[in-house]
Amino acid sequence: MEVKDITNRDQDFAKWYTDVCKKADLVDYSSVKGSMIIRPLGYAIWEEMVHVLDQKFKETGHENVQMPMFIPESLLNVEKEHVEGFAPEVAWVTYGGKEKLEERMCVRPTSEVLFCEHYKKIIHSYRDLPLLYNQWCTIVRWEKTTRPFLRSREILWQEGHTMHATKEEAQAETLQMLNIYKNFQEEYLAMPVITGKKSEKEKFAGAEETYTIEAMMYDGYALQNGTSHYFGQHFAKAFGIEFVNKDNKLETPYQTSWGCTTRMIGGLIMTHSDNNGLVLPPKIAPWKVIIIPIGEVDEPLKYLEQQLKENHITYKVDNSNKTPGFKFAEAEVKGYPIRIELGARDLKENKVTLVRRDTLEKITVAVAKVLPKVKELLEVIQQDMFNRAKERRDQMIYEVKDYEELKKTAATKPGFIKINWCGSEECENKIKDDTTMKTRCLIENEAVDGACVVCGRPAFTKVYIGKQY
Amino acid sequence: MEVKDITNRDQDFAKWYTDVCKKADLVDYSSVKGSMIIRPLGYAIWEEMVHVLDQKFKETGHENVQMPMFIPESLLNVEKEHVEGFAPEVAWVTYGGKEKLEERMCVRPTSEVLFCEHYKKIIHSYRDLPLLYNQWCTIVRWEKTTRPFLRSREILWQEGHTMHATKEEAQAETLQMLNIYKNFQEEYLAMPVITGKKSEKEKFAGAEETYTIEAMMYDGYALQNGTSHYFGQHFAKAFGIEFVNKDNKLETPYQTSWGCTTRMIGGLIMTHSDNNGLVLPPKIAPWKVIIIPIGEVDEPLKYLEQQLKENHITYKVDNSNKTPGFKFAEAEVKGYPIRIELGARDLKENKVTLVRRDTLEKITVAVAKVLPKVKELLEVIQQDMFNRAKERRDQMIYEVKDYEELKKTAATKPGFIKINWCGSEECENKIKDDTTMKTRCLIENEAVDGACVVCGRPAFTKVYIGKQY
To answer: Which one of A98, A309, B346, B395 is most buried, counting C-beta atoms within 10 A?
Structure first.
């Protein structure tokens, strides 16, 4: 294997992305069209994400459950908008063994209807509320064109589904989960994100309001990296879910759902990685350090390993019989935040070389300073990666004064454009037809002045638009 | 809800089992026939199991991956015995959205063929071996009759798949994983288990040797609670997997697979639970303690919670406005190992009442002694539960001198029977026809003396037989 055989990121971003996914051993393909194999490193990154998010969900009172993976067609049909949104892209099971099923079932594309059917059985009184459930599972959407992590027929994800006695409580939950996603992505994935409400056109099939997490990739494209929906009483009414309130009257509860997926791994790659391969933020890297022993270094290696273990810093040692140069390249491809070159010759001079993956900077320290330097670097790298990503993103957000400038900017400058918008789907469609850009999310905390940049009518809001994955 | 409305275990074991699953809120049903909903307590138990096993797998060098959930029919067909074993019980996906698939795909009933296809791509040299993979996922087998946790169309499980350069190494792996299962079930689930090789007739479709974990339930029925297979080069040859050995020659690697499922939750229930509901061994209970405050006890409650937290003892507090009697019953149904009745009146006399779930024994201790007593009890309960289960099981294993006694024992005494067996499938079938008992596993470390208890020919081995779930 030629480790560094990765397409240049600035020449062909799409090919570069696939190269990184393959060369870093994150994924592989199989004869199952549209699905991917997530290999050990890719899955270990997902496990880190699951671990942190699951803890945050539990801290905020959520419980995990597991629903069936199949949905009978009649159950999917209960909520009209929902079925229209999902029916075209589901996989249908029609046979069990040799027997044709009386009713075909799809593999869940999302589980709202399954949760609602269950809620109907277990919600009776205000004492049963709120009901705060989450599920980690695989869903299926029959996509035509797929790309590793970004768009796949099978998706690993979590889906939260909650029921509340009041509208206010449900809306607060929707925003709470949006913030958990935002904080997780900024703090752990070092990905700056924009959050806000989706337009009517772009919201989830069946939702009253959809909030989104929008990250900007290195090439200026948007990645929707999580959503949090407020359903109101929409599904609850369709399913006849009611509870007896404190005044002994029947009421319909208010609902939310929220989810994020392995797509975040794609976002991670397209935000931070480079021409040498994967770059992982320390806080989400399964192994923070790779040690490459050069020459006879058994004793110092043992000592270093012990120090790392005692400080709960995960690491790997490359003991293979490849050349140091090859090992360095491979350590870079796989994105270990810090590489420690533990060389016999260096050690004689009381030196150890550390290499930052994010900047490839070489740092030579005295043996006694290795551990404190590693600790310091893990924090510095995490912060620097976020800062660099944020700076780049902020430089790629443009404001335009009229529609001509909008079209020109869309055609020449990768990134997001911030515009005044009247709120009409007509203008949204026009932008899409002319530029392939869609609205990303409404900007809620900025005063709106002036006219819609498309039609000239009074603007109702500011909104980000951008091309998307 | 009437908490204690559970069928008597000695009157109708099957109904008792379903009652415990339902009343302890472990599962619920839905309109998805044959699948179950795993509710928060049931799923939390599974999470504990996953957590411990996953750590043991990783400590022994295994890496997690995620394969596709679908298998194209042609891929399933590659290994003949395997497809014959599984094709009758798979769910077939035939449509993606509105389009009929060119080739139908089943939802994985197990993933040998997917792993093999991947191995073929990634194994080239002896340096790539051993390859030690594991996958946590859901599988589907189209069962006709289902029971919560024991037999379900959808099963949560893990499946380990490994490839080795030598036969010896692969066989050692098979036994290593069998032992990990055994130790886990005995140490954490407090379930004594018998391990051994399956007969030719009972082994896995495609395996050379299948080792099994056999537990005996309260009613004397066997539960196969995990299996570890040695495949030899069977699949590897069918898939054309080869590697270059140290002498630069092409060789075929040796393979294993091993799995255990949510069925272990069923085993846990049928081993330990009683007429008051669930009984959980402390080491697998998601919450070790339930605190029931009675009267004004805010300060001592806060103090107790702090003590438990500091000692990493998970707990719940029942702060609902139900009566203490109702709360006690509910705490019993849900199987918390220790119930702490924190009563204002008791506290005035410097007393706190602890109740063991396994024996329902009440223990009154001074306030200062609560924490040490809890710690002590958690260990004592775990050990006592194992000892009781083992004693019961050992008393329900019978030896018989002839076939008449075998038939009489099988008809009158629940449990396992240990017999001399010639090893022929003919005798195995006769036993099954006459008693519904199947061979559980071969007994390898006992000398065989005498004749096959069925046909009178020389015995080749001792074997356990029993009725099974």
So the answer is: B346
**Shortest Cα distance from A454 to chain B (angstroms)?**
36
Among A364, A390, A416, the domain-final residue is A390
Question: H helices of A273-369, where?
Answer: 298-310, 324-333, 344-348
Measured between beta carbons, the chain B residues lying within 8 angstroms of A47 are 64
Question: In what helix (H) or strand (E) does residue A353 lie, and over which residues does it extend?
Answer: strand A351-356
Same structural domain for residues B373 and B404? no
Residues A325 and A461 in one domain: no
Determine the Cα–Cα distance for residues A190 and A183; give it in Å rounded to an integer. 10
Can you name the residues that pair with A211 across neighbouring β-strands?
A197, A228
Query: Of B32, B43, B127, which is closest to A65 when you measure between CB atoms?
Result: B43
Number of domains in chain B: 3
Q: Which residue of A has its CA nearest to B144?
A: A96
Local structure of B246: helix, strand or coil: coil
Whether B464 contacts B440, CB under 8 Å: yes
CB atoms A138 and B133 under 8 Å = no
- d(CA A65, CA B41) in angstroms, rounded, equals 8
Q: What is the pLDDT along chain B (469 residues), one digit of tens a residue?
A: 455 689 999 999 999 999 999 999 999 999 999 999 999 999 999 999 999 999 999 999 999 999 999 999 999 999 888 888 888 899 999 999 999 999 999 999 999 999 999 999 999 999 999 999 999 999 999 998 999 999 999 999 999 999 999 999 999 999 999 999 999 999 999 999 999 999 999 998 889 999 999 999 999 999 999 999 999 999 999 999 999 999 999 999 999 999 999 999 999 999 999 999 999 999 999 999 999 999 999 999 999 999 999 999 999 999 998 999 999 999 999 999 999 999 999 999 999 999 999 999 999 999 999 999 999 999 999 999 999 999 999 999 999 989 999 999 999 999 999 999 999 999 999 999 999 999 999 998 888 888 999 999 999 999 999 999 9
Point out which residues pair with B317 in neighbouring strands. B291
Calpha distance B370→B352 (Å, rounded): 7
With CA atoms as reference, the chain A residue closest to B54 would be A47
- A278 inside domain: no
Residues of A with CB below 8 A from B72's CB? 31-32
CATH code of residue A179? 3.30.930.10
- The answer to whether residues B76 and B211 belong to one domain is yes
Other CB atoms within 10 A of residue B347 CB: 18
Q: Which token pair is A219?
A: 């090439």
Cα gap A191→B354, rounded to integer Å: 49
- Measured between beta carbons, the chain B residues lying within 8 angstroms of A71 are 32
0.90 surpassed by complex ipTM: yes
Query: Can you give the CATH number for the domain in which A340 is found?
Result: 3.40.50.800
B3 domain residue, yes or no: no
Instruction: Assess if residue B205 is contained within a domain.
Output: yes
Assess whether B377 and B401 both reside in one domain: no
To the nearest whole Å, the CA of B44 is away from the closest chain A CA by: 7
Quote the radius of gyration of chain B (alpha carbons, Å).
Answer: 25
A37 and A153 belong to one structural domain: yes
Q: What gap in Å lies between CA B365 and CA B357, rounded to an integer?
A: 17
B95/A92 CB distance under 8 A:
yes
| Whether residues B259 and B293 fall in one domain | no
Q: Has residue A99 been placed in a domain?
A: no
Identify all chain A residues contacting B32, using CB atoms and an 8 Å cutoff: 68, 70-72, 75, 105, 114
Residue contact A30–B88, C-beta within 8 A: no
Task: Chain B: give the shortest CA distance to residue A210, in Å.
Answer: 25
Domain shared by B350 and B416, yes or no: no
Residues B302, B358, single domain; the answer is: yes
User: The domain spanning residue A424 has which CATH number?
Assistant: 3.30.110.30
Last-in-domain residue among A272, A299, A325: A272
Q: In which domain, by residue range, is A258 found? A: 13-66+117-139+146-272
